Amino acid sequence: MILDGKTLTISHVTEMARNPELRVEFNSVIEERVKASRKLLDGFVESGRVIYGVTTGVGGFVNWLIPAELAEQLQNNILRGVSSNVGNYLDDDYTRAAMLARINSLGRGVSAITWENYRKYVELYNSGILPCIPEKGSLGASGDLGPLAYIALVATGHWWAMYQGQKMSGAKALKSAGLTPMRLDYKEGLAMINGTSVMTGVAACVISDAKQLLKNYLLISSMSIETLKGKIMPFHAAAHENKPHPGQAKAAAAIFSTLSDSKMVVQDEEVESWLRNLSNGKPQGMDQQIEDAYSIRATPQILGPVIDTILSAEKTLEIELNSTNDNPLVVVERGDAFHNANFHGQYVSNAMDQLSIVLTTMCNLADRRTDRFLDPFHGNGLPPFLCKENPGLRHGLMGGQYCATSLTAENRSLCTPVSIQTLTSTGDFQDHVSFGLVAARRTRDILKNSYYVLAFELICACQSADFRGIENLSSPTEAMYKIVREKVPYLDHDESLTPYIEAVADLLHSNKLLTAVPDDNSTFDW
């Protein structure tokens, strides 16, 4: 991948992060920009300008002047001073995504890193060396100071890294890969850590996964509506043209097209005709109704905001990926240095909070649908707990609801907004912080739970399809049913559901279910 600082997308980041054999390249334009920015900063230092983090201390020591001849010591101390994170190390793909985001940002030529050290950062990425980044402890105010510092420490021959499956010192990893450590001059340590690249890298991967999971969930929703004997007309375009939220229209179109040849889903006129024939001219109760419950009928209105929020978060993160989120900026076109706060992670934190909410909304919907599958009073003729053989002696799928409902409740408990949890620090210098990486990690955890919740709904839908007759499924849902049945059998006996829930969650991770969507179906293309 040739980075240009302007066109990096979330799909690019995810592809690179999860395919470690892929490499980064840079072109002559990036080289010219990086060198020009550094040359401008060199001139400022020679002229005696006072610039934050160059000839001053940083953070709570912002009011201290530092002679330029102490630059290397200052920059190394900056890395050591902020590297205080704790906890598990970030997963490899998140680390690669963070490094890629930083390389793209520094390559914009506004951060004034030297060309030699920029090139070494790229070599570090391409070598496959993965700095060990403890995931907890970032304020997300001056960006991800601590998390990015661990990358910079390894680049200078310190800290710990994973290389070829082994944990070793940064110095040994560099030597093993045939690389030489960076030597830092003024501004360079700060340039490598003063930004949002870790929260942005993690968030990019989470958004990519959430987008694909939602597409899977539109297929699952279609099958649930079908096997619960839901009515199709609430998904007709006519209704949604009159409430033209883009996500709502996308959700309705995907479901309507998926069920277009279903013999199981119910047409409104069928119910209306049946009810009309029962009428005796007096008020009377019946065992069918003209409209379905909201967890069926309102699916586009519930999942529409999920689509719109994910697409909005994707746009926000792609702007962040292609930004210079650094301080100070050395802008060649302006011929000046600008003190600023582009490192602040509020955009990322806000986007992750919103994504957490809509992922939990999906789980709330799945929880209600699962309950309808298992409750004999709401299943439209399905056996209690989807247990046809030896009910009472057996539990059927009852136990799976324990897991799914527990995870849904856990997700709901995790949805307290992180982006508003600011606490002052650093002698009131960093007096408003974003907790962007905390928000991204929290959304990652909610997403992990969501795979299981949605997987159990799909298991219920497939079990119900066996009762209804799989020959009556639509073409896409029948194809999805067959994919699931390769992993999960029809359950006519009780056994642990854990392996089956895990297996279907893996199918959702792999996006294999989306192969059930015909190539000419464009309703899933967004």
UniProtKB/TrEMBL annotation:
A UniProt-annotated Pfam family: Lyase_aromatic
PANTHER family, sorted: HISTIDINE AMMONIA-LYASE
Listed SUPFAM superfamilies: L-aspartase-like
GO molecular-function term, one example from the UniProt record: ammonia-lyase activity
Gene3D superfamilies, alphabetized: Fumarase/aspartase (Central domain), Fumarase/aspartase (N-terminal domain)
Species for this entry: marine metagenome
Name of the protein in question: Phenylalanine aminomutase (D-beta-phenylalanine forming)
